[in-house]
Specification:
By secondary structure, this protein is α/β, with parallel strands linked by helices. The chain starts with 9 loop residues before the first helix and ends with a helix. Helix 11 packs across helix 12 and helix 12 packs parallel to helix 14. The protein has two domains: 355 residues, TIM Barrel (Alpha-Beta Barrel), CATH 3.20.20.140; 94 residues, uronate isomerase, domain 2, chain A (Orthogonal Bundle).
């Protein structure tokens, strides 16, 4: 993992060092906590910075036979760090091995291999740096040359910390909210009625019918827009669409408010109408709409009941998406209300489905409908390359808006370097094969576009 890491040709090395390496980062989707950014959260030790909330590492540790007490349980932070150190050697071939060492190198200047023998000295060295200042949440963002951060926020959030960050002249990174109304779509889940009640309270609208509900959502969109939001996000674990009317959706909503479960067909109709309503709002405010599709969440009931969601027990769903996704986009396009849209699927079988589908709805601006970067289980070397090759084969790779972190860790920004190296190596391979000209000016613009400029122009934050 020296300067030529993932760069297999001289052309790749030139492209990376001359055009990609020093570009700022636009992180248009992540799960960082705005309160922690505002307060410049500091970390007591490397475990807190590295392992808290990182379900990627937790899954690897479980696969390596580590007991849960050393993962999410009551073991000390040092014991958890040792457990991770014992696991790292076993992650060879997994991107965690490279990410772990990139983070040690880039943030802490440590080039030793992490393993059971080196763990005690690395623990001491990193913790000494963490306690010495300059490694708070803001510091790590600045060290990573980040220009924009888009957090993930519920419509009922107050956005108070986004406002405080915006008004803080000592921090010039834009930390913007993203609108994620998943709880308002999952009409059959426990807690739906309580969420609707809280939506009414924060929007100051008494929600007694579907019109009230839509008005409350619109009110929150306007509030988010005033606070810098330019991106929405939806987790669509099962892709569904059913033609319906507003009256049908209203009747289904009323049924749910009475505490009754709705049928699958009713759920499809409710989600379809509500999603199209939201899409029209996003188009009006010139937001980008993101769909994260095909996650199979919380599959281990025993562990879900014990330690809750987002703890490493999710996997890839294998449902059909082509027809319902196309119908949803078409419903918006028919009314000239299709916003900028970014589509991600965690299932790589959907690559060619999405790669071909986005071409059906382009127009009005470069790359309006995007095939989003390789997501979750796919954000590794093979997954990233396959996503990029699919996009290149079926659309315009040159208009791709590139990488995001999708992480809860302030140390994850090295993944942008990982991605940029792969971009440069892929393009350089095409040069070596004689498929594209060795024109460094043209190739440099291509690299800079994918790694930074396209996203800057697409979102217009």
């Amino acid at each position: 993992m020296d300067d030529t890491f993932l760069l297999s040709t001289d052309t790749a090395i030139i492209l990376y060092n001359s055009f990609a390496k020093d570009l700022p980062i636009i992180d248009y989707h992540c799960h960082l906590n705005p309160k922690e950014i505002y307060e410049n959260k500091t970390f007591q030790n490397i475990t807190e910075a590295w392992l808290y909330g990182d379900h990627y590492k937790w899954r690897a540790m479980r696969a390596n036979g580590m007991e849960e007490q050393f993962i999410t349980g009551g073991a000390t932070d040092y014991e958890k760090f040792l457990a991770w150190s014992k696991t790292v050697t076993m992650t060879i071939g997994n991107p965690l091995y490279n990410w772990t060492h990139l983070e040690l190198q880039r943030f802490f200047g440590i080039y030793n291999i992490l393993n059971e023998e080196t763990a005690p000295s690395i623990w001491e060295e990193v913790n000494k740096m963490l306690s010495g200042g300059g490694f708070g949440a803001r510091d790590l963002i600045k060290k990573s040359n980040v220009e924009v951060v888009c957090t993930t926020d519920d419509p009922i959030d107050t956005l108070e910390y986004h406002a405080k960050i915006r008004d803080d002249s000592d921090f010039d990174v834009k930390v913007l909210p993203s609108f994620r109304p998943d709880k308002g779509l999952e009409i059959n889940l426990d807690g739906y009625f309580q969420w609707v009640k809280e939506l009414g309270e924060v929007s100051q609208i008494q929600i007694s019918n579907y019109d009230d509900f839509l008005n409350a959502l619109q009110s929150r969109i306007e509030f988010f827009h005033l606070n810098g939001c330019r991106v929405s996000d939806h987790a669509l674990n099962t892709m569904m669409y059913e033609e319906t009317t507003k009256q049908e959706a209203a009747n289904i909503f009323t049924k749910a408010l009475k505490g009754q479960k709705v049928s699958l067909d009713e759920e499809k109709k409710y989600k379809s109408y509500t999603l199209t309503f939201l899409g029209k709002q996003y188009a009006k405010f010139e937001w980008a709409m993101q769909f994260h599709i095909q996650a199979l969440r919380n599959t281990n009931t025993k562990m879900y009941n014990k330690i809750g969601p987002d703890t490493g027990f999710d996997s890839i769903n294998d449902g059909q998406i082509a027809v319902p996704l196309s119908q949803l986009l078409d419903a918006l396009a028919r009314e000239d209300a299709l916003p900028k849209t970014i589509l991600y699927s965690v299932n790589p079988k959907d690559n060619y489905v999405i790669g071909s589908l986005i071409g059906n709805f382009q127009g009005g601006m470069p790359g309006k409908i995007q095939f989003g970067t390789a997501w979750w289980f796919n954000d590794q070397k093979d997954g990233m390359l396959e996503q990029m090759k699919t996009l290149a084969n079926l659309g315009l790779f040159s208009r791709f808006i590139g990488m995001l972190t999708d992480s809860r860790s302030f140390l994850s920004y090295t993944r942008h370097e990982y991605f940029r190296r792969l971009v440069c190596d892929l393009i350089a391979q095409w040069v070596e094969n004689g498929e594209v000209p060795n024109d460094l000016d043209m190739l440099g613009r291509l690299v800079q576009g994918i790694c930074y400029q396209n996203a800057k122009e697409y979102f217009n934050f």
